[in-house]
């Protein structure tokens, strides 16, 4: 059971419950699982035992109960049924003889194999109802839900910084448009500006002097940043963006650091950037790395009155 730490709006709770009903009906978990004699919980137990990494110590009943959120008495009855079918074997834990280590027998793996294949087939059939170009959107949305709802203590995949690929530049524009409209009330004028900057970068790209990094986490794009050549001695940091699920990981600082290192390696004498006073988190990142505010000016852009700022770093 998750322990709530934030209030949930009534309409959000209603939307989540509605999605649960929709999705469980789509994947068929309200019927006997996969048309077989096993319950959904029994299949979940089989799945965890079958997929437990061989390099790790075998699971104990208490660890399995905690992982699946099951009552120990209920789990014990399931395990006894598995033993009666010769699907499960136990051996005393060398660390604590009061606990037994659980592993599937060859018969257990054989019993699970058709369930696994049928589950894969049904997942493929469900995704097959979506056009190929949109299947990635479905998977990306599921990853977002998983990352946002996962317990804080859960192991999280590392961040990879890579060169841009086809479609990444459009994603950069989209993220700027969506995030700044939602969080700061910027109009489409801002998205248009970012689109112009991205187009200019693509058309005038100088590989010796300029660079873009796309940040990925668990195969999902979560951030981006650019270094462009302003003059022979001046590099400009542009379009630093993080998705909401990537915040709090230090990624903004990491992206800024690779830009600074790149600029120094190329022999630039100074790095500059332009931002707005309302972007407190970004400004804190820049200040921590030695950028100083060079000048500021009031401007009316993106549907609001803003205070634009130019920051500089001597390299």
TrEMBL record:
<dbReference type="GO" id="GO:0008080">
    <property type="term" value="F:N-acetyltransferase activity"/>
</dbReference>
<dbReference type="Pfam" id="PF00583">
    <property type="entry name" value="Acetyltransf_1"/>
</dbReference>
<protein>
    <submittedName>
        <fullName>MarR family transcriptional regulator</fullName>
    </submittedName>
</protein>
<dbReference type="InterPro" id="IPR000182">
    <property type="entry name" value="GNAT_dom"/>
</dbReference>
<dbReference type="InterPro" id="IPR000835">
    <property type="entry name" value="HTH_MarR-typ"/>
</dbReference>
<dbReference type="Pfam" id="PF12802">
    <property type="entry name" value="MarR_2"/>
</dbReference>
<dbReference type="InterPro" id="IPR036390">
    <property type="entry name" value="WH_DNA-bd_sf"/>
</dbReference>
<dbReference type="InterPro" id="IPR050769">
    <property type="entry name" value="NAT_camello-type"/>
</dbReference>
<keyword id="KW-0808">Transferase</keyword>
<feature type="domain" description="N-acetyltransferase">
    <location>
        <begin position="159"/>
        <end position="315"/>
    </location>
</feature>
<dbReference type="GO" id="GO:0003700">
    <property type="term" value="F:DNA-binding transcription factor activity"/>
</dbReference>
<dbReference type="InterPro" id="IPR016181">
    <property type="entry name" value="Acyl_CoA_acyltransferase"/>
</dbReference>
<feature type="domain" description="HTH marR-type">
    <location>
        <begin position="9"/>
        <end position="154"/>
    </location>
</feature>
<dbReference type="InterPro" id="IPR036388">
    <property type="entry name" value="WH-like_DNA-bd_sf"/>
</dbReference>
């Amino acid at each position: 059971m998750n322990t709530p730490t934030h209030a949930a709006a009534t309409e959000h709770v209603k939307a989540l419950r509605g999605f649960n009903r929709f999705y469980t009906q789509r994947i068929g978990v309200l019927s006997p699982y996969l048309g077989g004699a096993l319950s959904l919980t029994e299949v979940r137990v089989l799945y965890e035992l079958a997929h437990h990494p061989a390099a790790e110590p075998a699971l104990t009943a208490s660890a399995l109960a905690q992982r699946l959120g099951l009552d120990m008495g209920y789990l014990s009855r399931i395990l006894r049924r598995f033993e009666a079918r010769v699907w499960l074997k136990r051996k005393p834990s060398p660390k604590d003889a009061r606990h037994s280590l659980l592993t599937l027998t060859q018969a257990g793996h054989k019993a699970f194999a058709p369930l696994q294949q049928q589950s894969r087939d049904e997942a493929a059939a469900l995704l097959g109802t979506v056009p190929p170009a949109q299947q990635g959107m479905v998977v990306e949305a599921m990853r977002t839900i998983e990352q946002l709802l996962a317990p804080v203590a859960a192991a999280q995949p590392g961040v990879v910084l890579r060169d841009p690929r086809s479609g990444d530049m459009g994603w950069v524009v989209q993220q700027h448009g969506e995030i700044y409209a939602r969080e700061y009330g910027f109009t489409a004028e801002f998205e248009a500006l970012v689109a112009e900057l991205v187009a200019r970068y693509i058309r005038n790209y100088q590989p010796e002097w300029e660079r873009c990094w796309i940040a990925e986490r668990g195969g999902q794009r979560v951030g981006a940043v650019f270094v462009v050549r302003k003059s022979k001695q001046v590099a400009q940091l542009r379009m630093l963006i993080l998705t909401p699920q990537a915040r709090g990981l230090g990624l903004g600082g990491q992206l800024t650091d690779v830009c600074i290192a790149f600029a120094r390696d190329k022999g630039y004498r100074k790095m500059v950037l332009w931002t707005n006073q309302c972007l407190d988190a970004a400004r804190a990142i820049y200040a921590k790395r030695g950028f100083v505010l060079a000048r500021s000016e009031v401007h009316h852009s993106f549907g609001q009155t803003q205070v634009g700022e130019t920051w500089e770093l001597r390299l």
